[in-house]
Amino acid sequence: MAQQALTHPIPPTWNEKSRVLILGSFPSAKSREMAYFYGHPQNRFWKVLALLFDEPVPETKEEREAFLLSYGIAVWDVIASCSISGSSDSSIRDVAVNDLSPILNHAPIRQIYVNGRKAESLFRKYIQPQIAREAICLPSTSPANAAWTLEKLLPVWQQILTFL
């Protein structure tokens, strides 16, 4: 698949009550199509959060946004624009990063998390030097991270509850 130069099409989800910020790398092709985060049906992000809060899995963009905001969770991605082949994190080139200052300056973010190793490496390289804050890397909820079953993801992802 050929590289495509893309700009992030989804605005961040957050409000003045957000206490945890979860950053991915860049939206998958399915997420770009759905126009919201973690849109691939095999991505476990929404299943993990629903189980952590003992809620039904939110299905629509509106339900997902309301779910995040009701629990004080902000979601965005590290990358503002890049060249990418499909949804492959390993193909990402020519990175420009998002400016997190609107969120960090206006919401009481207690902890930043990154969803997976690619988001972690991009965060450490580009964003951490600018904001001088650490991020905790959580195992990716992507279907590409098949070694981590839903049962393995849950206890690790549970740590976000500490900061909410």
Could you explain the architecture of this structure?
- This protein has one domain (4-163): Uracil-DNA Glycosylase, subunit E (3-Layer(aba) Sandwich), CATH 3.40.470.10.
- It has six helices and seven strands; from the N terminus they run ββαααβββαβαβα.
- The chain has helices at residues 29-34, 45-52, 61-70, 101-106, 117-131, 150-157, and strands at 4-7, 20-24, 73-77, 79-84, 93-97, 111-115, 136-138.
- A four-stranded parallel β-sheet has the order 3-2-6-7. The protein has a three-stranded antiparallel β-sheet with strand order 1-4-5, covered by helices on one side.
- The longest helix has 15 residues, at 117-131.
- The model has no long low-confidence stretch (mean pLDDT 96).
SSE map:
Layout: E1 4-7, E2 20-24, H1 29-34, H2 45-52, H3 61-70, E3 73-77, E4 79-84, E5 93-97, H4 101-106, E6 111-115, H5 117-131, E7 136-138, H6 150-157
Parallel strand pairs: 2-3, 2-6, 6-7
Antiparallel strand pairs: 1-4, 4-5
Helix pairs in contact: 2-6
